[in-house]
Every structure is written in structure tokens, then in C-alpha cells.
């Protein structure tokens, strides 16, 4: 009991495990199933209690420093809906990307949208964090996990180097210095508080 309490308080339980674990962002109070990489990269997902017909989720993505963090909503890089984000001074710049081949992925268009949650989006002394509601993001064409999946594999990718033009959301990026795939328990990602959290999303006051 004592040992598990100690371990749960630290990042040690998450590092290297290649699986996600519960994580609550102190500033928003939102609980995610999250993967954390040794570099400080993290990716978390929260889902509604009832997955039936659901198309939306809340994600948190971030890292340490000023580089970019990316996620594949299906696992692989190719033919998947990707999220790519990085800090720009005190703001975070983000876009959807998709590519059929390896290389800096171009911006993806579709009905999916991202809307930030203000107190889950911040740059502090060491890290940056972007928390957003991803609406109409869960697809049925294999480019993302499915609504009723109880478990899925998501991809992560990161580079400590910032893109060439940080204020341009469509900017190209250099190849990741770390990438991989992680198992997420989506049952554990579900919460009855999802609807409340989702209601906190709003257009940013300043970009
Ligand atoms: C110039 C930019 C990029 C290049 C050249 C590139 C290339 C590659 C290559 C060759 C792999 C296979 C593993 C390896 O050989 O390293 C890979 C894997 C991966 N990439 Fe990229 N990538 C780029 C950008 C991105 C971005 C922006 C994201 C996410 C937003 C991403 C997500 C992934 C993921 C999740 C994997 C692991 C899963 C897989 O192997 O498909 N990549 N990438
Ligand atoms: C985050 O903001 C929402 C409203 O936008 C608020 O209800 C919630 O309590 C805030 N979280 C924390 C931990 O203060
Ligand atoms: C900055 O944010 C990160 C990610 O949320 C957190 O782990 C870290 O403790 C924060 N640092 C400070 C100094 O608040
Ligand atoms: C998820 O788990 C529930 C409860 O065990 C089960 O009824 C359902 O079929 C599972 N869904 C999938 C897609 O495997
Ligand atoms: C960077 O991108 C922003 C927004 O797209 C643009 O206004 C600016 O001119 C760009 N800067 C350079 C040096 O290309
Ligand atoms: C933003 O970046 C894209 C991709 O590199 C480029 O095509 C576009 O011209 C840039 N926009 C500005 C305003 O610099």
C-alpha cells in the first residue's frame, strides 16, 4: 500500500511503460488516461461515460521546452488523423495533419475541429500544455480509434526543435527525434464529468 502510493505520485510509473495511466492536470482539474515520455512529452485522452455514437474527446498534449509534440489518433503516422502542436511565447499553436507518406505532414481538412480549454492551456517555466475538445474527431474510416473501442493504440512523436515559423499553424516541421505507439485503456478514459469539462471549451481570446 505504502509503496504503490509513493509510486503513483511520481512520473516513474509512466516512464518507459509504453502504456497510458490516469493523470489529472492540476490547472484544469480534468482527468485523462495519459502517456508520458522521458523527454517531458505527454498525451492524454478523456471520453464521455457512454461511448455510443460519440465523435468527440478531450485531449491534452504538451512537452518540456519549445519543441513540437504530435499524436496519431490511429497509431501509425501514415493515413491517420494527426494532431501537431507547439508553444509560441505564451500561446499554443495547433493543427490537424494527415499524410500518405513519411515527411512533414500537410494540414488536414475535414469537419473535425479543436477548441481549447483555457485553464488547461498554458506555458509555465518548464512545460507547455494544450487541452482541447476535439469535435467530430472520431472517424469510421480507420484514421482514428473508434467510438466503441475499449482499448486502442495511439502514436506519439516529438522533436525538441521548434518549427521554422512558430506563428504559422501550417508550418512544416523537422522529423521527430522520438516516436512510437502506446496502448490506451479507453474504458479508463471515460468519465461522467466529460460533459461538464467539454462545456469549458471556448475560442481563445487572443491567438
Ligand atoms: C519531416 C517530418 C517527418 C518525417 C520525415 C517522418 C518520418 C517518419 C518515419 C520514417 C517513421 C517510421 C519510423 C522511423 O523510421 O523513424 C515515422 C514514424 C512515426 N511518425 Fe513521423 N515523420 C515526420 C513527422 C511526423 C509528425 C509531425 C507526426 C505527428 C504529428 C509523426 C508521427 C509519427 C508516428 C506516431 C510514428 C510512429 C508510428 C509509425 O511508425 O507509423 N511524424 N515517421
Ligand atoms: C477550469 O475552468 C473551469 C471553467 O472554465 C472551472 O469550472 C474549473 O473549476 C477550472 N478548474 C480548476 C482546477 O480551477
Ligand atoms: C508546468 O506544467 C507541467 C505540465 O502540466 C507540470 O508537470 C509542471 O509541474 C509545471 N511546472 C510548474 C513550475 O508549475
Ligand atoms: C467493450 O466492453 C464491453 C463490456 O465488456 C463489451 O460489451 C463491448 O462489446 C466491448 N466493445 C468492443 C468493441 O470490444
Ligand atoms: C510566419 O507565419 C505568420 C503567420 O502565418 C506570418 O504572418 C509571418 O509573415 C511568417 N513569418 C515568416 C518569417 O515567414
Ligand atoms: C506557412 O507555412 C506554409 C507551409 O510551410 C507556407 O506554405 C506558407 O506560405 C506559410 N505562410 C506564411 C504567411 O508565411
TrEMBL record:
The record's annotation in Gene3D superfamilies points to: Cellobiose dehydrogenase, cytochrome domain (2.60.40.1210)
Q: Does Amino-acid biosynthesis appear among the keywords?
A: no
- Is Signal included in the keywords of this UniProt record? yes
Sorted keywords for this record are: Signal
Signal peptide extent: 1-17
A Pfam family annotated for this UniProt entry: CDH-cyt
Q: Where is the Cellobiose dehydrogenase-like cytochrome domain?
A: 23-195
InterPro entries in UniProt: Cellobiose_DH-like_cyt, GMC_Oxidoreductase_CD
| CDD domains per the UniProt record, alphabetical | CDH_like_cytochrome (cd09630)
Output this protein's name.
Cellobiose dehydrogenase-like cytochrome domain-containing protein
